[in-house]
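Risk mitigation, structural track. In case the binding assays with zinc ion fail to produce interpretable data, a predicted complex structure has been prepared as a fallback.
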Amino acid sequence: MLELIKYPNPILKKKCSPITIVGGEEEDLFQKMVKMMYLNRGIGLAAPQVGINKQMAVVDIGDKRLLKLINPAVVEADGTEEMEEGCLSIPDVYIQVKRPKRIKVKSLDENGQETTLEVSGLMARTVLHEIDHLKGRLIIDYLNPIKRFLILKKK
Ligand SMILES: [Zn+2]
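Fallback model:
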């Protein structure tokens, strides 16, 4: 069983490595990540949140679609929307984050096939949140230093 990594564990600040060959190891990790996401009632989970430094993430916002993303990258974005976000790795912290409304994302699927995804609203937001994780970026990084200090001193 994997462990859910929480702030301020430095693993969360590291950039993840891209995956060159998708195989059994990734399949196994996806299974464990999906389980972890559902167990914690999350709508997304990135590999560093379970201590793995790989560009992999899962998303399920409850619309009967489970996304498994490998090396996801935003190729198009438009619009902006601000919404409150939480993160399984930073419990009880909710922050207003401004993000694009619609995005086009290229990634590999669980079979190593290149796929392009066009998503909007909460799905786009969640995918972007997970891509941030793969770059070592957390929701608290969207705050100015004073606000961040005030929020995190309570933790
Ligand atoms: Zn998160």
